[in-house]
Amino acid sequence: MTGPSIAERVREVPPSGIRRFFELAEEMDDVISLGVGEPDFTAPWRAREKAIESLELGQTSYTANRGMKALREAIASHVEKWDLTYDPDDEILVTAGASEALDLTFRALVDPGDVVAVVQPSYVSYIPDVMFAGGTALPVPTRAEDDFVLTPEALADAGADRADMLVLCYPNNPTGATMTRDELARVAEFACEHDLTVISDEIYADLTYTRSHTSIASFDGMRDRTIVYNGFSKAYAMTGLRLGYALGPSNVIGAMNRIHQYTMLSAPTTPQYAAIEALESCDESVEEMRTQYDRRRKFVLSRFEDMGIDCFEATGAFYVFPECPWEDASAFAEALLEAEKVAMVPGSAFGECGAGHLRVSYATGLSDLRTAMDRLERFLD
Amino acid sequence: MDARAELIDLLRENARYSVEDLARLSGLEESAVEETIAALERDGVLCGYQAVVDWRRVESESVRAFVELNVALDRETSYEDIARRLAKFDEIQSLRLVSGDYDFALDVEADSMGAVSRFVSERVAPVPEVTQTVTHYIMESYKERGIEFDDGYDDDRLSVTP
Fold first, then answer.
1. Bridging pattern class, strands A115-120 and A165-169
2. ipTM at complex level
């Protein structure tokens, strides 16, 4: 008996490139991890209180498949600040994390053989999700020289003009790059010209530091060809509550909901109550967290500069993406971990063009950040 | 946020940040940090730097009490006059004029309950304008100046995540 055979499309997806590194970090005690893509803050108390209250009131049943109407309305109001207008009735879908929304989109839109261009360095789930849906991923590298900003030239060089879809994520995980309105306008023009559906992961939209966020869906001609993702994990520090949402044309959201209603039925109920409260009354908490991240960002960039490590000025999310002092960033990350117990993720985990870089998360308290930087400095000496 | 507001905010968060830290966290030059702090001190904006202590963790016999004070004013005496007089006592850690059922709120600290009682009865109550005192001994402190005591936080996030 050899046991059940695993589906080919699942076998095709390689294991995470940082698995070995992850296992190494898990085995060690007292590691200061700058490898965590998760806020070190907890969700705003008011939101947590609302979650507790909802349980006390026994609000534990399914919600509408698309998510609670009140939450969809609150989301519609929230995204207006980015010039996005969506109808809560049929253009918003509440999901179990933005990850579910992303998976649903590919399953709803990708036919076998469809080509999905993925801007890299990228969050590690995009390409596997494309593969699970039967599509073919086409990496579109961005370069440190361009501050990891996507350009029409990079898209053309990668052959994205022949793709069916384009996945981008700004503010970006892992680089911390953001895009200006003008830079995005050029990408929007390319998408319209080549009839690309754009999948825009904007989960870090509330975490920008030098300018406010622009959504690619806000450009002329883009709304009907873009699906926007966001959620409560990053800005509201609600990672464990698993709540996200997708915004898009009603036919796409409807198709996603068709899959969602047979798999998830509805996003978990308690976090939806917390999320309504978060959107309606926790702006100050978000601003406080953003202020803290910004300070840490400046701190880390300044320490890298003093150590002579090149790092472009990351302006969003909670990552910086410095050049690695060694040619082999994986070897460097392992050596640093073993010698000084500081974990940084090798950039190659996020695509080939990330090689030679390190992803450093500053979603960690200042005292640990300072110690980690001191240890890095000692390691380099 | 301008430089003054940013530095006030940072120092309220942690008054022990070094000039170097403050410069890195704010993006200001170290010289600008030093100059701004000097100006804030000179202008009386920054009046002092103190630690927030969880006394339960320290072997200490000191006793703290919160005292409500009612006063009767006359044409010759203002709240300010009374406050100026009371503020001189070392036992009074903070002194505030408040709205509501009483006039002043005092934080009093002394070596023992007896010492607090004596101080209130022998020093505060006899002040001619004082008409009533109500003393509340502090039995336990859970939060002070925005800092929650015993707020143990174990970081159980995955060491490395995508």
1. parallel
2. 0.80
